[in-house]
Design goal:
By secondary structure, the chain is mainly alpha-helical. The chain is about 40% helix and about 5% strand. Helix 1 packs parallel to helix 7.
């Protein structure tokens, strides 16, 4: 059977209008999405449809936008990644120019090109970078918060399937889907290894980032410094606050 080849760079939703950044506001709530779909709030319609993954404003809201409301911590970065995947050239640039190891990267602006400044604004609005980077030419960003939740990964797989469906009507097998993903370096755009990428999309946890060693001192009832080695541990539990009877 012939494999399917897709050049994802042919997907080109405009990133030169500020509406592309405004699209991140659309996902504030399901009611907000409905208001934009009903044109009760103003935004470029083509950008809105591409971002949501619908052909017409009369189409129902895709279930992944409804489900992501359950995960407010991850929602902004999830929306940013969905936004990035409205433009194949932007995806390629993240994969080849900006992404680093460990779910992070550094975005560079070398001109006043509107697309570049809008990408920077989107990183700030989605809280992938510190707001103090809004006017900087080097913008470090971090996508990691979204990767700690495997349920969100399954939702993002639906986003990618929708984006790919713009190129083919064929119902893809899992192998065909991942072949397209790796050929277009989707995992690199997300600052993931391919194994991490696939594991996350399939709804499984992976050791995205872990603490190998921890040095504790002056922590409540602990009087002497303690060194903890997590190397052989399978699970780590971090307590933001520990209350003992002696402190009640």
């Amino acid at each position: 059977m012939d494999s399917i080849h897709i050049d994802f760079t042919e997907l080109r939703t405009s990133w030169t209008k500020y509406d592309i950044v405004q699209a991140l506001d659309v996902i504030y709530s399901v009611d907000t999405i409905q208001k934009y779909k009903k044109k009760e709030a103003k935004i470029n319609e083509r950008i809105l449809r591409s971002f949501l993954g619908i052909n017409s404003l009369d189409d129902p809201i895709p279930d992944y936008w409804i489900e992501i409301q359950k995960y407010p911590i991850e929602k902004k970065i999830f929306s940013l990644l969905a936004l990035i995947f409205t433009h194949g050239g932007v995806v390629k640039d993240f994969a080849t120019k900006y992404s680093k190891d460990n779910m992070k990267g550094v975005f560079y602006i070398d001109s006043k090109d509107k697309q570049l400044t809008n990408i920077r604004s989107a990183l700030v609005v989605a809280e992938a970078t510190d707001p103090t980077n809004r006017r900087k030419n080097e913008v470090p960003y971090d996508f990691s918060v979204v990767y700690y939740n495997p349920k969100v990964g399954k939702l993002f797989k639906k986003v990618l399937l929708e984006r790919i469906s713009r190129f083919t009507n064929k119902e893809l097998s899992n192998d065909e889907f991942y072949s397209i993903c790796i050929e277009n370096e989707f995992h690199k755009a997300l600052s993931l290894t391919f194994d991490q990428f696939k594991t996350w999309l399939e709804g499984y946890s992976f050791n995205a980032c872990y603490v190998k060693e921890l040095h504790i001192s002056n922590f409540l009832s602990i009087k002497e410094p303690v060194d903890i080695d997590f190397e052989k541990s399978k699970k780590y539990i971090f307590l933001e606050r520990m209350v003992t009877e002696s402190h009640l």
